[in-house]
């Protein structure tokens, strides 16, 4: 009898050890979540700390672009947008039209031109008008302003958009 009881206890303990994390509820909508996470699948994309950080960066970029759209002279050569443009240029072999750079970075030609003018003033690129009102931008060799992490970021984005 004593042995029997011990076996039952062992079973209960074994079951307890293998027990899954109790299901939790989403802090936003109260929906049950997987593996005790505080957000359901609908809300993890908008409420996790990582998602909030990404959204904050996106908002900052959107505000900056809106500002440059209104006041092109406010474009800064050291902003992440300018870095993206430089990385795009590097990724395209060092030379591309303003229209292409704008498109690749989801910017208007006006905004891309504002950044390119600023980068040109800093000696990081040269711009050259061609026939049919195209402007070709060329990365100045050795100005080396594209950080490796920025390049990786751009390549990852290029892969995402091409898949
Ligand atoms: Zn939820």
Structure description:
The chain is mostly helical. It folds into two domains: 24-70; 74-162, Winged helix-like DNA-binding domain superfamily/Winged helix DNA-binding domain (Arc Repressor Mutant, subunit A, Orthogonal Bundle). The protein has seven helices and three strands. The protein has a three-stranded antiparallel beta sheet. Helix 2 crosses helix 3 and helix 5 packs across helix 6 (109-121). The longest helix is centred in the middle third of the chain and has 22 residues, at 49-70. The model has no long low-confidence stretch (mean pLDDT 82). The structure holds zinc ion (ZN).
Shape type: elongated
Strand arrangement within the widest β-sheet reads: 1-3-2
Q: What is the helix content?
A: 55-70%
Q: How are helices and strands ordered from N to C? A: HHHHEHHEEH
Instruction: List the total number of helices.
Output: 7
**N-to-C CA distance:** 65 Å
Quaternary form: single chain
Please provide the count of β strands: 3
CATH level 3 topology of the largest domain: Arc Repressor Mutant, subunit A
How big is the Rg? Answer: 26 Å
What number of domains? 2
Largest sheet composition: 3 strands, antiparallel
- The CATH homologous superfamily name of the largest domain equals Winged helix-like DNA-binding domain superfamily/Winged helix DNA-binding domain
Mean pLDDT: 82
CATH architecture of the largest domain: Orthogonal Bundle
């Amino acid at each position: 009898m004593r042995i029997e009881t011990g076996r039952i206890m062992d079973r209960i303990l074994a079951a307890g050890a293998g027990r899954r994390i109790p299901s939790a509820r989403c802090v936003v909508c109260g929906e049950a979540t997987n593996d005790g996470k505080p957000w359901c699948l609908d809300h993890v994309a908008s409420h996790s700390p990582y998602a909030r950080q990404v959204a904050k960066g996106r908002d900052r970029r959107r505000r900056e672009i809106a500002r440059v759209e209104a006041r092109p002279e406010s474009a800064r050569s050291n902003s992440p947008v300018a870095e993206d443009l430089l990385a795009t240029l590097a990724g395209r072999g060092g030379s591309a039209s303003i229209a292409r750079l704008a498109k690749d970075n989801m910017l208007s030609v006006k905004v891309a031109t504002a950044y390119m003018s600023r980068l040109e003033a800093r000696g990081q690129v040269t711009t050259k008008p061609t026939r049919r009102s195209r402007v070709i931008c060329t990365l100045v060799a050795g100005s080396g302003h594209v950080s490796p992490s920025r390049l990786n970021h751009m390549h990852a984005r290029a892969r995402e958009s091409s898949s």
